[in-house]
Amino acid sequence: MLDKNGIAKRIAREVKDGYYVNLGIGIPTLVANFVRNDIEVEFQSENGVLGMGPFPFEGEEDADVINAGKQTITTLPGASFFDSAMSFSMIRGQHVDLTILGAMEVAENGDIANWKIPGKMVKGMGGAMDLVASAENIIVAMMHTNRAGASKLLKTCSLPLTGVGCVKKIVTNMAVIEVTPQGFKLLERAPGVSVEDIKNATEGHLIVESDVPEMEL
Amino acid sequence: MINKKVADVTEALQGVKNHMTFMFGGFGLSGIPENAIAELVKLNVKGLTCISNNAGVDDFGLGLLLQQKQIKKMISSYVGENDEFERQMLSGELDVELIPQGTLAERARAAQAGFPAFYTPAGYGTEVAEGKETREFNGKMYVLEKAFDADFGFIKAWKGDAAGNLIFKGTARNFNPNICGAAKITVAEVEELVPVGELDPNQIHIPGIFVQRIFKGAHFEKRIEQRTVRPKS
């Protein structure tokens, strides 16, 4: 079973040379720490920066340079700043190659819910609806089950949707799964996790074809 | 040169009344019009509809207007950092419309650019699209979203001049340029008000035509919401 850093590490292998990548808040943010340093990748933050760098050194933080999580950041050589309409032109216009975001629920048809629990939690969707409605390449990073132990990979989402039929791949603490027209296709197992474990933790239709390899990290 | 300079925030906010609709620049607490917000608190205008990506935190930004119960309706994309906001929303005191962030930016830009509405894929198939026109283009579904209609737009820039030309800094730019010219009156507060002619015309982000009033903010706290650093090795 992987921890959050393990999930991020596995997703980092999906990041290819020349990609512009948008990282959501939470586990997706950690992906930046594991991207190979022999490839060129630029991170976009939807509040208006392309070419995000690491956190600033203590004492060098700038209130005018933050990421979408409102954290102080730095920029790398070649970075640019822009307004929100232009930022979402990059996203809606499909100029961003890969979007990695978290989810509360994903359904076997690729529906995703991650912005609202009616009566309990209403924080808002931020840029998530624009991202999932537009991106060709969306990877969801999340734990396989919620805190109560219930599966987050469902037949249909029970929470209000963020987008319909948009998720292509899911990386959890237990598995790498592809969303296909037939359902969740199991691609890889996390170290020490059996196919049976994954079946038990997946409510939606899980497709298992012969040998399921263990993840390479 | 058409002069847009006003003496101070008091003059800049003349004409502000109860029950008006305002747009605010800023993402989180970065690039928010701090001086205009402080003046709105002082004026204590009520029944406001506020369009802003976020709602501030409990004791700063639009949170200050929420504390005094000046806001009737909030149109935002993300409101997760404000307990008083959540309390007023769940108790029904505050009407809240949550919309996608890119849609918020584009509804402002559409108002600025003279488009009554536009189609976006964001929110299709979700409760955001309920009651709205949808249409298929090239095999994909889109939602019709309308331009904002606001009385005042309050924005913050880094540098400006009396002609109303503006330059923004870093990610404090965010929604600010999109709000310029999107409301009936755009009020810009700047950190530095420089003599006309000093700004290089090649470097201006927003031309003065989109700004009606400009003033140098008396004070900018520029609070950091999440201070994240790495140690000097």
TrEMBL record, chain A:
Protein origin, superkingdom = Bacteria
Which InterPro entries is this protein grouped with?
Answer: 3-oxoacid_CoA-transf_B, CoA_trans_fam_I, CoA_transf_AS, NagB/RpiA_transferase-like
Mind listing the GO molecular function terms for this protein?
CoA-transferase activity
The answer, when asked if Transferase is one of the entry's keywords, is: yes
Which PANTHER family does the record cross-reference, listed alphabetically? KETOACID-COENZYME A TRANSFERASE, SUCCINYL-COA:3-KETOACID COENZYME A TRANSFERASE SUBUNIT B-RELATED
Concerning its family, UniProt says: Belongs to the 3-oxoacid CoA-transferase subunit B family.
Q: Which NCBIfam families match?
A: pcaJ_scoB_fam
Recorded protein name is CoA transferase subunit B
Automatic annotation (TrEMBL), chain B:
Keyword Metal-binding listed? The answer is: no
* Domain of life according to the entry: Bacteria
Per the record, a Pfam family? CoA_trans
The Swiss-Prot or TrEMBL record annotates one GO molecular function as:
CoA-transferase activity
Instruction: Read off the InterPro entries from this record.
Output: 3-oxoacid_CoA-transf_A (IPR012792), CoA_trans_fam_I (IPR004165), NagB/RpiA_transferase-like (IPR037171)
| Keyword check for Transferase | yes
Q: Which keywords fit this entry according to its UniProt record?
A: Transferase
Q: What is this protein called?
A: CoA transferase subunit A
